[in-house]
Structure prediction request, 514 residues.
Amino acid sequence: MTSSGRWPSFPDRPRSGSTVQVSDAPGAPASICRTGPDPASAGHRLTGVSSARSHPHGSHAAARDHCLSPARAVDRPTGPSRYGRMFPGLDPLDTDPGLLMSAGDTGGICDSAAVLDGLGRGDDATEAAGWPFFGQLIAHDITADRSPIATGGVDPEALRNARAPKLDLEMLYSDGPVGSPFLFDLGDPAKFLLGPDGGDVPRNQQGVALIGDPRNDVHLFALTLHIALLHAHNRIVALLRADGVSEADVFDQARTVLTWHYQWIAVHDFLPRLVGATLVEQVLAEGGRWFAPSPLQAYIPLEFADAAYRYGHGQIRHTYRLVDDGPAVPLFPDLVGFGPLPADRRLDLTQVFDVPGRPPAQRAKRLDGRLAASLIGLPEQVTGAVAAAAYRSLAVRDLLRGDTTGLPSGEAVARLIGVTPLTADEIEPSWPGGTPLWFYVLKEAEHRGGGDRLGPVGGRIVAEVLIGLLRADPTSYLSLQPDWEPDLPAAGPGFGLADLLTLGIYSDRAAGRT
Ligand code: HEM
Prediction:
């Protein structure tokens, strides 16, 4: 590659790879061009898998707790570590916790029977099955509330977000090669370290993933996306070196290249599918009406973290096929993570993302207010020991979180933002005093988004928060070069998530590197 100058100017990152110093002056231009992986190769299968038998992945006896902690973590002492509100003027809904628990627990209105979630049983959404998992990675990038689940009110002021509220791939890079050296290759610290065959992340001698956020090891899908992004970074390092970028700059530039592509995909590929292109364009053009934090003043609104952005729980299927003609495998317990990933239990990404030249991928589950059986009975590896059996249900947790943080009803938000609330028939069964925001967002997607997209309330919250976070981040592409477009190789006419996820994997395998 040549230094074409087509690449944007990026703010310098501290060489240590530690937290970005936003006072840095813009500079350090990099260039990269559409060379590297053969776009035609993007249709290849990633790995071969044939067996659906049980496996050691996730079979540890020791349960570890990834969503709870005995004490609230105070990892970041300043403003961005706090949660806030988008609609501070609205009253909390205040629903009886017993009602929430029975609605979310086994047999309740949020429980979708496993039989409905089998492949080809009519609950397919339009979008491919991989999209919610990309959404989950974004969640892991920007929000981590480690407070214990409970009934009763919590003081939102006391909650702490263990992630920076930025789409900066913190779950990949953590504190960079200097601050988190265990993530990187000792022989080539600009590159991430991978597992022995490149198909897993590195792990310690007890099987614990050495990655920036343990939640990306929760199941095969999050882990596979994480690994794909590690490969993509390593491939970008190789492309930049071929383009003459100095060793002193190559890590920082590769990090920015990957991060900007990820951010661009969030705005131009992910969000339009989820909330519709019209709303995305409107928020980009006019800014957020309800969430528009100033630069460096970003925070995660509770309406987002504890309701609207949990929409993705409703898109998860109970079973997935991992390879061509493979069996439908239940997500839990079969595909739970937190342990070494065996070579015979890998995911071919083209089974969950549409890739040119390959058959259509499986679809996500339609949004309809119900969660798949795998999520109504979460494994102990995910929840840790629970005080009440109902806390195994993710629907119970979603409903209780919204209650304990005092979220308003979905109807109240709809009225505030000027849209007609769902009718009682659409909500069915109706809730006393109003519908919990999380459940409302799911039912709104069913009735106003065809089961594929979020409706006006959910879509407005999600679009304004994700775009608002990017606007408040002075290093994002949206702040520095809003017209910037991806310049990495694409298999089709436009760049998309599948191109990024397959970038490093195909090229590295083709070259005999892993
Ligand atoms: C198999 C897939 C998934 C599993 C097993 C899972 C599991 C969990 C668990 C256990 C929690 C903590 C619950 C609590 O105590 O409040 C959680 C929180 C959350 N999940 Fe998921 N999730 C999945 C997919 C998704 C998807 C697809 C999205 C969005 C697209 C998503 C968004 C969120 C958000 C925003 C939170 C709150 C995070 C925080 O603020 O700390 N999840 N999830």
Summary: Residues 67, 132, 135-136, 139, 143-145, 149, 218-219, 305, 309-310, 312-313, 316, 331, 375, 382, 394, 397, 401 surround protoporphyrin IX containing FE (CB under 6 Å). Residues 1-78, 508-514 have pLDDT under 50 and may be disordered. Residues 10-76+86-144+153-472+490-510 form a domain with the Myeloperoxidase, subunit C fold (CATH 1.10.640).
